[in-house]
């Protein structure tokens, strides 16, 4: 076959293929495109798409009786009491017991000094905060937040120590021990008398006024800080 004949055959095949594509485009249904997103009138930006419809309303109610797995048991009053240890701002929830500054000093040396330092200055490398000092610094360029300078209620100190300290054995201190450690920290900060015999209990603890007691505003939802 000559070169001219081969060229003519190629042109015929190309025209046939092009004709088939054209026929496919015209014979099929009309092509569609996505709708142009709506615009925000003021800015001309694309408006966000409407959220998808939730199928939650289509679900049938869960039959609780049919979904019991036979594990666990109702909590006893004793078990509830072990975790019901929160203390409110006005002293509600403080447990029975007592502790002195001297007892707290010894406990601090045993359980707290490794993280918070001998002078309660904190150890930044361990993430353990400074506990005292910084009074009057909150409105300055270098605020120092401590028990003494920041917390508006002494109950926060009791609640936090009782619930979360020491870091390696949280919740292991008895109420007497928490009262004692609190007496030592508050005594070192000058909030209560720094006397070895100074004792804290539920009544005396609730009467403590912290330096930053007026540094917070009441809850705007109407109940205030004590609720």
Automatic annotation (TrEMBL):
It comes from the Bacteria. This is C-type cytochrome. The lineage of its organism: Bacteria, Pseudomonadati, Pseudomonadota, Alphaproteobacteria, Rhodobacterales. Keywords: Heme, Iron, Metal-binding, Signal. Residues 1-24 form the signal peptide. The keyword Metal-binding applies. Transmembrane segments: none annotated. Residues 99-189 form the Cytochrome c domain. The keyword Signal applies. Pfam families: Cytochrom_C (PF00034).
